[in-house]
Amino acid sequence: MSETLKKVPLFTPAPVLVAGIAIIATRCISVVMLANELGYEELVNFVHRSAQAWDSTVIFIASQLIFLFELRCAFTLMHGSNRGRWGYVATQIIVLGYMLMASMGWIYPEIFSIDGETNAQIIHHTLSQKLPDVMVLLLLFVPASSRAFFRRR
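Now predict its structure.
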């Protein structure tokens, strides 16, 4: 981990730095907010319920791995790695696909699902929750300085 932090490029464009910091901040703050909202007992119950069946356990472990992978992608993309940028895109596609399928009742268990009365409401709520991630992706792909930064590596 220390090697990751030591090799910082001299001229990292501002949109890439903002995107990387936004990924790290939103992920860490969301974990803290979830822990605060649930409280200790509910957090322990959530982990216990997730460990009741193998499919819930697999999805819970996968969510933790995606969290860690997103953090790794944030650090590597700030260093100019195109793999970090595309890795973040891949995680967003996986997360969005799972959230939509679980919310619409197509797959079980529905650990990370969104409530809604109709499929249109579910899609709207899911996409509105993913709006910050879309903004981060725009910062990584739209500005010319970001594209040039990832092209030169």
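The mean pLDDT is 89.
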